[in-house]
Description:
The structure holds two protein chains of two kinds.
Chain A (H helix, E strand, L loop, with lengths): L1 E12 L8 E12 L3 E5 L6 H9 L6 E6 L2 E2 L7 E4 L11 H12 L3 H14 L15 H14 L4 E5 L7 H18 L2 E6 L2 H7 L2 E5 L6 E6 L14 H23 L1
Parallel strand pairs in A: 3-8, 3-9, 6-7, 7-8
Antiparallel strand pairs in A: 1-2, 1-4, 4-5, 9-10
Helix pairs in contact in A: 2-3, 2-4, 3-4, 6-7
Chain B lengths: L11 H24 L11 H14 L2 H32 L1 H15 L7 H8 L3 H25 L3 H9 L4 H37 L6 H10 L3 H29 L6
Helix pairs in contact in B: 2-10, 3-4, 3-6, 3-8, 3-9, 4-6, 5-6, 6-8, 7-8, 8-9, 8-10, 9-10
Amino acid sequence: MSRLSIRGVGKTFAGVNGGAPTQALLPVGLEVEDNAFITILGLSGCGKSTLLRLVAGLEEPTTGEILLDGAPVAGPGADRGVVFQSYTLFPWLNVRQNICFGLRQKGMPAVRQREISERFIGEIGLRGFEDHFPKQLSGGMQQRVAIARALANDPKILLLDEPFGALDNQTRVLMQELLLGIWERERKTVMFVTHDIEEAIFMASRIVVFTRRPGRIKSEVPVELPYPRHYTIKTSPAFVALKARLTEEIRAESLAAAAA
Amino acid sequence: MRGVRLFVPVPRGQRIGLGIAFFVVFVAVWWMLTASGAVPPQFLASPPQTLVAAWQLFAKFDFGHDVGMTIWRVVGGFLLAAVIAVPLGIAMGAWKPVEAFFEPFVSFARYLPASAFVPLLILWVGIGESQKLAVIFLGCFFQLTLMITVIVAGTRRDLVEAAYTLGSTQGGIVRHVLLPGAAPEIAEALRQVLGLGWTYIIVAELIGASSGIGHMITDSQALMATENIISGIVVIGLVGLATDLLFKQANRKLFAWSYL
């Protein structure tokens, strides 16, 4: 059975100041199986982030329904961990307290919180930074803490909205490897939104390509490359061929968007 | 100025030195005005006369008691205002219907000059301590409520969304996101409004008081003792400066994260 079922989900935003409503997402259907790493690839403003926000429960769909383990999604909750593109660590909490935030909301005993945060601080390689505040961390470190904070809650699915978009290229590649490593160890279901083709291929077990706005699913591309993946895979013929194909698909969309 | 670059901080010693330097310049100009006879002494006492007067006030006329009374009135009225304004402001900032209900009235009441209520308050509550506290309360309360409303309403939405996805309830968000996030700015608003309290207290003490700095100033006016009046004003300034510094220090200690 699918972990996540997206059935005919569309979103239209009401017009601002009496303007015309904006159709962000045409009704889409998508099944995400357990332990999958799905990347959603599309141009900026194509509605891919909207889909992620709908799954997170931060927006309500105009049409359709979203089921997580068979239960309809109604509003945000701890069973869907989210990592945002902007840095959203709580600035008044240090690294450990940020990671424990969700656990504290659950009322988990402090000893247990400590054990879990210990484990994830190790996973993200930030031992020695437990007492640092977000402002004292680099962007990459902040996003690592944000990943740990979401995972500490043991969500059924991890949703990431271009989390490495603001990072420099080298850091971004390291972060992709780190996330992939965590996914392989923790066996989580992941939905990752990006506009970066290489990023989309490198991590995904399946890529969902979006059309230009109003977004709908253009194609679903399985990535047959074996895990664990090393960065050198990016120069393998299979990777390069897939990249060429997706580049064409995305290029067609951007040309059409520019002509519109 | 050449060599002084924008926003570059000055070393601590230099900063304190510059701060004191202006006090010296101020007193020097004051002294010159009085010593040269440009301003007759019955209008403006000289710095030495003021010093002597201050010493005599404290030594012979128990001015310390007056200063103590004034401080207690300001702090008492301010605390009363804060105890109601802080929770009300938070509620108004967090829940829009609460804001819609109170905001227009509070905005209206903010423009009512607290000093204009002195005669009415004497009628209502007499000339005792409650009248003094009431003036300070009126002067601080509405201002403070509005400032806190704006601060809380400005809470970063992405942090609120992150908290929702980490399993926070509405109450959890108020307690663990709105409050800690707004606390440094609320403390700063309290500091500013306490200063406002000082501007109202003298008016409250000018009429119907038997103690306090304002009372001493009214008595001195009858005697044309400008040196006493100036002493009183300078003491207010010094007490204000001292509380301001204490407040700043406390804020820096309590909310170290926001000064990183």
